[in-house]
Protein backbone atom coordinates (compact mmCIF):
# COMPACT_ATOMS: atom_id res chain seq x y z
CA UNK A 1 0.00 0.00 0.00
CA UNK A 2 2.80 2.39 1.00
CA UNK A 3 6.50 1.94 0.50
CA UNK A 4 9.36 4.25 1.48
CA UNK A 5 12.61 3.43 -0.31
CA UNK A 6 15.67 5.24 1.12
CA UNK A 7 13.69 8.44 1.60
CA UNK A 8 15.43 11.56 2.88
CA UNK A 9 13.98 15.02 3.36
CA UNK A 10 16.12 18.11 3.84
CA UNK A 11 14.23 21.39 4.18
CA UNK A 12 15.53 24.48 2.34
CA UNK A 13 17.03 25.78 5.62
CA UNK A 14 19.32 22.72 5.71
CA UNK A 15 17.37 20.79 8.36
CA UNK A 16 17.47 17.00 7.77
CA UNK A 17 13.96 15.98 8.84
CA UNK A 18 14.15 12.38 7.49
CA UNK A 19 17.24 10.27 6.76
CA UNK A 20 17.13 7.20 4.50
CA UNK A 21 13.78 5.87 5.68
CA UNK A 22 12.73 2.38 4.53
CA UNK A 23 9.46 0.66 5.39
CA UNK A 24 6.35 -0.82 3.82
CA UNK A 25 2.76 -0.68 5.02
CA UNK A 26 0.53 -3.47 3.76
CA UNK A 27 -3.24 -3.17 3.35
CA UNK A 28 -5.20 -4.15 6.44
CA UNK A 29 -2.50 -3.26 8.95
CA UNK A 30 -2.70 -0.69 11.73
CA UNK A 31 0.67 0.90 12.44
CA UNK A 32 1.73 3.53 14.96
CA UNK A 33 4.35 6.11 14.06
CA UNK A 34 6.00 7.60 17.10
CA UNK A 35 8.95 9.71 18.23
CA UNK A 36 9.51 12.91 20.15
CA UNK A 37 8.44 16.28 18.85
CA UNK A 38 10.70 17.17 15.93
CA UNK A 39 11.56 13.52 15.12
CA UNK A 40 10.02 13.78 11.64
CA UNK A 41 6.51 12.30 12.00
CA UNK A 42 4.65 15.17 10.31
CA UNK A 43 7.23 15.34 7.54
CA UNK A 44 6.72 11.64 6.84
CA UNK A 45 2.93 12.14 6.58
CA UNK A 46 3.45 15.20 4.37
CA UNK A 47 5.52 13.14 1.92
CA UNK A 48 2.69 10.59 1.62
CA UNK A 49 0.18 13.41 1.00
CA UNK A 50 2.61 15.18 -1.39
CA UNK A 51 2.48 18.32 0.72
CA UNK A 52 6.27 18.00 0.61
CA UNK A 53 8.50 16.10 -1.80
CA UNK A 54 11.51 13.96 -0.80
CA UNK A 55 15.03 15.26 -1.37
CA UNK A 56 16.19 11.71 -2.08
CA UNK A 57 14.57 8.31 -2.43
CA UNK A 58 11.12 7.21 -3.49
CA UNK A 59 7.68 7.03 -1.96
CA UNK A 60 5.19 4.57 -3.49
CA UNK A 61 1.43 4.62 -2.91
CA UNK A 62 -0.37 1.59 -4.34
CA UNK A 63 2.72 0.83 -6.42
CA UNK A 64 2.90 4.31 -7.97
CA UNK A 65 6.09 6.27 -7.52
CA UNK A 66 5.09 9.74 -6.30
CA UNK A 67 8.24 11.23 -7.82
CA UNK A 68 6.52 10.77 -11.17
CA UNK A 69 3.41 12.68 -10.06
CA UNK A 70 2.82 16.20 -11.35
CA UNK A 71 1.09 18.85 -9.25
CA UNK A 72 -2.01 18.25 -11.39
CA UNK A 73 -2.17 14.62 -10.23
CA UNK A 74 -2.00 15.44 -6.52
CA UNK A 75 -5.82 15.65 -6.07
CA UNK A 76 -6.14 12.10 -7.44
CA UNK A 77 -3.56 10.86 -4.94
CA UNK A 78 -5.36 12.59 -2.06
CA UNK A 79 -8.63 10.88 -2.93
CA UNK A 80 -6.96 7.62 -1.93
CA UNK A 81 -5.99 9.01 1.46
CA UNK A 82 -8.26 9.76 4.39
CA UNK A 83 -6.69 12.22 6.83
CA UNK A 84 -7.70 12.61 10.49
CA UNK A 85 -6.36 15.66 12.36
CA UNK A 86 -6.01 16.31 16.06
CA UNK A 87 -8.34 19.31 15.96
CA UNK A 88 -10.56 17.56 13.34
CA UNK A 89 -10.97 20.83 11.39
CA UNK A 90 -14.75 20.68 11.19
CA UNK A 91 -16.74 23.56 9.76
CA UNK A 92 -19.15 25.02 12.30
CA UNK A 93 -21.24 26.88 9.73
CA UNK A 94 -22.91 23.67 8.51
CA UNK A 95 -24.41 20.39 9.70
CA UNK A 96 -22.65 17.14 10.53
CA UNK A 97 -24.04 15.71 7.27
CA UNK A 98 -22.59 18.56 5.20
CA UNK A 99 -19.20 18.29 6.89
CA UNK A 100 -18.94 14.61 6.04
CA UNK A 101 -20.28 15.19 2.51
CA UNK A 102 -17.65 17.81 1.68
CA UNK A 103 -15.01 15.51 0.10
CA UNK A 104 -17.70 13.92 -2.09
CA UNK A 105 -19.07 17.31 -3.18
CA UNK A 106 -15.55 18.40 -4.12
CA UNK A 107 -14.99 15.16 -6.03
CA UNK A 108 -18.23 15.76 -7.96
CA UNK A 109 -20.34 12.81 -6.79
CA UNK A 110 -24.07 12.77 -7.66
CA UNK A 111 -26.44 13.95 -4.90
CA UNK A 112 -28.21 10.62 -4.37
CA UNK A 113 -24.87 8.87 -4.14
CA UNK A 114 -23.62 11.43 -1.60
CA UNK A 115 -26.59 10.82 0.73
CA UNK A 116 -26.03 7.07 0.69
CA UNK A 117 -22.30 7.29 1.32
CA UNK A 118 -22.52 9.95 4.04
CA UNK A 119 -25.08 7.90 5.97
CA UNK A 120 -22.94 4.77 5.62
CA UNK A 121 -19.92 6.66 7.03
CA UNK A 122 -21.94 8.18 9.90
CA UNK A 123 -23.38 4.74 10.68
CA UNK A 124 -19.83 3.31 10.91
CA UNK A 125 -18.87 5.87 13.57
CA UNK A 126 -22.21 5.59 15.39
CA UNK A 127 -23.52 9.08 14.62
CA UNK A 128 -26.35 8.42 12.21
CA UNK A 129 -28.86 10.15 14.51
CA UNK A 130 -26.80 13.37 14.65
CA UNK A 131 -26.55 14.18 10.95
CA UNK A 132 -28.72 17.30 11.15
CA UNK A 133 -26.93 18.87 14.13
CA UNK A 134 -24.24 21.48 13.95
CA UNK A 135 -20.98 19.84 15.09
CA UNK A 136 -20.56 22.59 17.69
CA UNK A 137 -23.34 20.85 19.67
CA UNK A 138 -21.37 17.58 19.88
CA UNK A 139 -18.88 16.40 22.49
CA UNK A 140 -15.14 16.28 21.72
CA UNK A 141 -15.25 12.54 21.07
CA UNK A 142 -18.26 12.89 18.78
CA UNK A 143 -16.58 15.70 16.86
CA UNK A 144 -13.54 13.50 16.34
CA UNK A 145 -15.83 10.72 15.05
CA UNK A 146 -17.34 13.18 12.55
CA UNK A 147 -13.78 13.94 11.43
CA UNK A 148 -13.18 10.22 10.95
CA UNK A 149 -16.43 9.78 9.02
CA UNK A 150 -15.35 12.60 6.71
CA UNK A 151 -11.91 10.97 6.26
CA UNK A 152 -13.38 7.60 5.22
CA UNK A 153 -16.52 8.72 3.34
CA UNK A 154 -15.01 8.04 -0.09
CA UNK A 155 -13.60 4.69 1.09
CA UNK A 156 -9.89 5.45 0.78
CA UNK A 157 -7.50 2.46 0.92
CA UNK A 158 -5.25 4.48 3.23
CA UNK A 159 -6.07 6.31 6.45
CA UNK A 160 -3.54 8.69 8.05
CA UNK A 161 -4.04 10.20 11.49
CA UNK A 162 -1.93 12.92 13.13
CA UNK A 163 -2.35 12.82 16.95
CA UNK A 164 -6.00 11.78 16.54
CA UNK A 165 -6.62 11.42 20.28
CA UNK A 166 -4.61 14.43 21.38
CA UNK A 167 -7.55 16.25 22.95
CA UNK A 168 -9.50 13.22 24.24
CA UNK A 169 -9.60 11.43 27.58
CA UNK A 170 -8.51 7.74 27.74
CA UNK A 171 -12.02 6.27 27.37
CA UNK A 172 -12.78 8.32 24.26
CA UNK A 173 -9.31 7.60 22.88
CA UNK A 174 -10.04 3.88 23.23
CA UNK A 175 -13.29 4.34 21.28
CA UNK A 176 -11.47 6.11 18.48
CA UNK A 177 -8.83 3.36 18.42
CA UNK A 178 -11.56 0.70 18.12
CA UNK A 179 -12.82 2.54 15.06
CA UNK A 180 -9.36 2.55 13.49
CA UNK A 181 -9.09 -1.19 14.15
CA UNK A 182 -12.44 -1.71 12.41
CA UNK A 183 -11.10 0.03 9.30
CA UNK A 184 -7.89 -2.02 9.34
CA UNK A 185 -9.99 -5.19 9.62
CA UNK A 186 -11.75 -4.41 6.33
CA UNK A 187 -8.44 -3.88 4.52
CA UNK A 188 -7.56 -0.22 5.05
CA UNK A 189 -3.90 0.58 5.77
CA UNK A 190 -3.98 2.78 8.90
CA UNK A 191 -1.00 4.89 9.99
CA UNK A 192 -1.36 6.79 13.28
CA UNK A 193 1.26 9.37 14.25
CA UNK A 194 1.26 9.95 18.00
CA UNK A 195 3.54 10.51 20.94
CA UNK A 196 0.86 9.19 23.32
CA UNK A 197 2.66 6.09 24.62
CA UNK A 198 -0.29 5.03 26.79
CA UNK A 199 -2.40 4.78 23.66
CA UNK A 200 0.25 2.65 22.00
CA UNK A 201 0.70 0.42 25.06
CA UNK A 202 -2.96 -0.60 25.08
CA UNK A 203 -2.89 -2.26 21.66
CA UNK A 204 -0.92 -4.94 19.91
CA UNK A 205 0.31 -3.61 16.59
CA UNK A 206 3.31 -2.56 14.61
CA UNK A 207 5.29 0.43 15.83
CA UNK A 208 7.65 2.63 13.80
CA UNK A 209 9.84 4.90 15.92
CA UNK A 210 11.65 7.95 14.56
CA UNK A 211 14.47 9.74 16.30
CA UNK A 212 16.08 12.80 14.73
CA UNK A 213 14.84 11.74 11.31
CA UNK A 214 16.05 8.14 11.53
CA UNK A 215 13.82 5.08 11.77
CA UNK A 216 15.31 3.48 14.88
CA UNK A 217 12.67 0.81 15.49
CA UNK A 218 10.22 -1.17 13.35
CA UNK A 219 8.37 -4.00 15.03
CA UNK A 220 5.92 -5.14 17.66
CA UNK A 221 5.46 -2.95 20.72
CA UNK A 222 7.51 -5.00 23.20
CA UNK A 223 10.25 -2.39 22.92
CA UNK A 224 9.67 1.17 21.80
CA UNK A 225 13.27 1.49 20.71
CA UNK A 226 13.53 4.77 22.56
P1 LIG B 1 7.35 15.86 14.31
O1 LIG B 1 6.09 15.80 13.52
O2 LIG B 1 7.86 14.51 14.72
O3 LIG B 1 7.26 16.80 15.47
P2 LIG B 1 8.40 17.34 12.03
O4 LIG B 1 8.33 16.46 10.84
O5 LIG B 1 7.37 18.39 12.19
O6 LIG B 1 8.50 16.43 13.35
O7 LIG B 1 9.82 18.07 12.05
C1 LIG B 1 11.04 17.39 11.87
C2 LIG B 1 12.17 18.42 11.87
O8 LIG B 1 12.08 19.22 10.69
C3 LIG B 1 12.11 19.39 13.04
O9 LIG B 1 13.43 19.70 13.42
C4 LIG B 1 11.43 20.61 12.46
O10 LIG B 1 11.83 21.77 13.12
C5 LIG B 1 11.93 20.59 11.03
N1 LIG B 1 10.97 21.17 10.08
C6 LIG B 1 9.68 20.80 9.91
N2 LIG B 1 9.11 21.51 8.93
C7 LIG B 1 10.05 22.37 8.47
C8 LIG B 1 10.09 23.36 7.45
N3 LIG B 1 9.02 23.62 6.68
N4 LIG B 1 11.25 24.02 7.26
C9 LIG B 1 12.33 23.75 8.00
N5 LIG B 1 12.37 22.83 8.96
C10 LIG B 1 11.25 22.14 9.21
P1 LIG C 1 12.64 -5.55 -5.73
O1 LIG C 1 12.41 -6.66 -4.75
O2 LIG C 1 12.94 -6.01 -7.13
O3 LIG C 1 13.54 -4.48 -5.23
P2 LIG C 1 10.54 -3.90 -4.85
O4 LIG C 1 10.16 -4.66 -3.62
O5 LIG C 1 11.38 -2.68 -4.67
O6 LIG C 1 11.24 -4.87 -5.90
O7 LIG C 1 9.22 -3.51 -5.60
C1 LIG C 1 9.16 -3.36 -7.00
C2 LIG C 1 8.07 -2.38 -7.33
O8 LIG C 1 6.83 -2.84 -6.80
C3 LIG C 1 8.32 -1.06 -6.71
O9 LIG C 1 9.09 -0.23 -7.55
C4 LIG C 1 6.93 -0.56 -6.51
O10 LIG C 1 6.44 0.03 -7.69
C5 LIG C 1 6.12 -1.78 -6.23
N1 LIG C 1 5.94 -2.05 -4.81
C6 LIG C 1 6.50 -3.03 -4.07
N2 LIG C 1 6.07 -3.03 -2.82
C7 LIG C 1 5.22 -2.03 -2.73
C8 LIG C 1 4.41 -1.52 -1.67
N3 LIG C 1 4.39 -2.03 -0.46
N4 LIG C 1 3.63 -0.47 -1.91
C9 LIG C 1 3.60 0.04 -3.12
N5 LIG C 1 4.32 -0.39 -4.15
C10 LIG C 1 5.12 -1.42 -3.98
Automatic annotation (TrEMBL):
Main location: membrane
Record's bilayer topology term: Peripheral membrane protein
Alphabetical list of Gene3D superfamilies matching this protein: P-loop containing nucleotide triphosphate hydrolases
Keywords linked to the UniProt accession: ATP-binding, Cell cycle, Cell division, Cell membrane, Membrane, Nucleotide-binding
GO biological process, one term: cell division
Localization in the cell: Cell inner membrane; Cell membrane
Gene Ontology molecular function: ATP binding
Entry superkingdom: Bacteria
This protein's record includes keyword Cell membrane: yes
Chain ranges of the ABC transporter domain: 2-226
Record family assignment: Belongs to the ABC transporter superfamily.
Assembly and interaction partners: Homodimer. Forms a membrane-associated complex with FtsX.
Protein function: Part of the ABC transporter FtsEX involved in cellular division. Important for assembly or stability of the septal ring.
Protein name as annotated: Cell division ATP-binding protein FtsE
